[in-house]
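>> received
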Amino acid sequence: MLLRASKKYSREVSLFEPIGIDKDGESVSLVDVIETDNTETIDLMIMNQDIRTLYQACDTCLKEIEKTVLTLRYGLYGKNEHTQREIAGSLGISRSYVSRIEKRAIEKIRQEFASRKQIL
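>> returned
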């Protein structure tokens, strides 16, 4: 029975188990070999999660005009960034109105993020 139980764990390897000795005579473990200082992958994953959260917040709490203004202003959803003047011209409204819409939309997004943080 003991042989069967130990057979289950025979292929498991600890990351901290020594696998050799370096040139200085120090023990080297698997975690030393695998560990990396390159955090680009983790940063990219976090950024992608933040983008998904932003898009969800835009879809749930913004009116269509607010979503359009933020999309054009900040280049969301793969669009190009535009100035307030360019957005005003394309929507047929004043630049100051675009500014007010942008401020209102950003505040709604900020409140949505704050409420999501409280839930977590």
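>> DSSP finds six helices and two strands in the chain.
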